[in-house]
Each structure stands twice: as C-alpha cells, then as structure tokens.
Amino acid sequence: MSARSHGLPALHLLLAIAIMAVWGTNFVVIKLALAHLPPLTLALLRFVFVFFPLALVLPRPKVPWRNLAAYGVLIGAGQFGLLFTAMRGDITPGLASLVVQVQVFFTIGLSMRLTGERMAAYQIAALLLATAGLAVILTHTDGSATPLGLALVLAAALSWSGGNMVARAAGQHDPKLNMLAYVVWSGLFAVPPLLGFALLLEGPQAMARGIAAADGGTWAAVAWQSVGNTMFGYAAWGWLLGRHPAAQVAPMALMVPVFGLGASALLLGEPLQTWKLAAFALVMAGLALGMLWPRFIRRTTR
Question: Is residue 133 within 8 Å of 276, Cβ to Cβ?
C-alpha cells in the first residue's frame, strides 16, 4: 500500500491509518468500559468530558444553536447511546464496528431524499452486497449478535447519518468550520438527553454503583472516548480533509472495521467463524464499491 496509490503523502497516510486504528480499536475499549459502567452512563460521561474543559478554550462555532442541538442529540443520544446499549450484551465489538459502517448508505439515502437524485446502479449493487452481509449476521444465533443488537446498531448508524447531514449544513453556514470545536460544543446538547435516559432506563442507583465500581482501567477507557476519539480523531481527520480532496481521504474509513474486528479477535478472543468472515467480506465489498467506484470511473474516463 503506497502513499501514491492513495494520493496522500507518506506522513499523511500514516496519520490517516493512525486515526482508523484509534477508531477501530475503540470498540474494544468501549466493551472494557461496559464491564463496570451502564451503557447510557458511559455515553453520558463521554460527552461530559468532551464538552468540559475544551469548551473553555474553543470558541463556539458560528452556526445556529438549533444546528448544534440537532448534531448533539443525533450523535450523543442517537449514535453512541444506542451503540453502547447494543454492545452491553447484544453484539460483539468486531461486528458492531462493521455493522455501524452502513451509515454510509443511510447518508447517501438521506442526501438523495434532500436533492431528489436517484440511486445509481453501482450504489444499488453496493447496498445489496452490504444487505447480504447483514442477513448473514442475522441468520446466525451463536450470541455474536441478537436481532435487538443488530437493530440498535442499525439505528445508531441511521442517527450517525443524520448527524452527517446536520454537520454538512453547518459547513454551509461556516465554510471554515472547526470540526473539533463543533463536536465539543454539540456535547452541550448530548448531555441532557443522555442524562435523562440514563436516569429513566438505568436508574440513579445503577449509575452510582457503576461509577463507584469503575477502576483505573475503566476511567482510562472513558478518557480515551473523549481524548483519543474526539480530540485526536476528529481534529486530525478534519485536518486531513482540509488539505486533501474528500475522495482521497474518505475511503480510508474502510479500515475501521478491519481494526475493529482484528482488535476484538486479538484482545477479547472474539471468534472469527467462517460465516462472520463471509459477512465481513460482503459488507466491506459493498462499502468499497460505494466509496471507490466513482473514483475509478473518473480515472478511467480521463
């Protein structure tokens, strides 16, 4: 894999791989934190530490409050609240890292709904491949993923895609949008719904027990959610997108499930049965086709 093949300088390519490694292995970190903390409590703590103390040093982005609120609710309570809940016991970290990537297709669908565009043939083929992979996961009942877990992660992916659309609208308000500041300030609106749902569904006693039982490793995992994924991940990813065309940078996201499944197998002993590898191949083929086919066509028609 050369830097030339991706159109990125070697150091920038290494940075992109480092971001994908952080985002992919984070699914293992989440699972470790869930050993002590209830899922909504974990999500709540993540966004508390995302907002504070960075909001003291990063100015609020010049976007409407309603835009920040929508992003915070969709990503906080939607994406991560649902994802963490699923990962408590209804889907393995490796499969979660794979299934949540179907947000790509949800994002395409929402974008087409807004613009009135029709789905191209290659996009239909990509969606069918990914759907076949999800069907393989759904038809296996060895405990790797329950129907509820799969549904929750798909709902998380849908929330993520909604957040993508809101962030795109924010970029139209502020062409020089600082993505890190945007994520930090949106945390202000992620905290209230997460707190409300945690109190309602988990209860203050379970929340308190989880926090009291958390050891140094658990708190390190919570910190990694904020520092590694948000402060490093979003800032570095935004830095790359600001210096290279999205078509060169975005396909690197295909590596997230590779790191996710690999780390879960290596560190947590998640078994890699034949059916799981087949599902992985089908979903990844769909994602790759959807992301890379337009770039291939542009190159061959020059």
Answer: no
Sign of the torsion angle spanned by Cα atoms 76, 73, 95, 262: negative
Burial class of 187 by CB neighbour count within 10 A (0 to 12, 13 to 18, 19+): buried
219 vs 22, 202, 223, 287, CA distance in Å? Answer: 17, 19, 6, 34
pLDDT recorded at residue 7? 66
Q: Quick one: average pLDDT of 26-46? A: 96
For the CA atoms of the chain, what is the radius of gyration? Answer: 19
Which tokens hold the place of 111?
């974008």
Report for 130-144, 227-241, 245-259: range of highest mean pLDDT: 130-144
Q: Is residue 171's pLDDT more than 80? A: yes
How far apart are alpha carbons 294 and 111 in whole angstroms? Answer: 16
Q: With contact defined as beta carbons under 8 Å apart, do 153 and 83 qualify?
A: yes
CB 151 within 8 Å of CB 100: no
Sign of torsion, CA 154 160 161 162?
positive
CB count in 10 Å sphere of residue 296: 11
Amino acid, single-letter form, for residue 165: M
Instruction: Answer whether 0.85 is exceeded by the pTM.
Output: yes
Burial of 275 (0-12, 13-18, 19+ CB in 10 A): middle
- Look up tokens 């945390």; give the residue: 187
- The span from the CA of 123 to the CA of 105, in Å, is 8
Total residues found in the chain within this entry: 302
